[in-house]
Hints:
Blueprint: E1 5-10, H1 18-22, E2 26-31, E3 36-40, H2 46-83, H3 88-106
Antiparallel strand pairs: 1-2, 2-3
Amino acid sequence: NEADLEETFSRSSDPGEQHVNKVSTVVTLRHRPSGVSVTVQDSRSQATNRRIARQRLITAIERERAKDRAAKRALREKERRRKSPRPAKLKKRILESKRKRGELKKQRHKIEP
C-alpha cells in the first residue's frame, strides 16, 4: 500500500559523474508496518532507483514473511513431535534398561547372613 511507504532521497556517495554529486539520486524506501528498509544508488537516475527500490522492497518483505511462516511451521512441528506418544518398542527398551539398573543397584546392598 502506498500509504505504508516512506521514501527519502539523498545525494550519492559513489565516486563518479557530476550528475550524481549534484542531484539527490539515492532512494531509501521504508515499509512502516514491517520496518523493512532498502537503499538504492545503482543508477544515475532517481526514477530508475525508485523503481529498483520498490522491487527490492517487495522481495525483502516477501523474504521476511517467508521466514516468519517457516518459524511458525517449525514451532508447530516441534510441538507436534513433543506431544506425540513414544513408540511401544522404545517404551519397552526404556523399561528394560530401568529394570537392569535397578538390579545393579540392588547388588550394592550388604549381604545379610
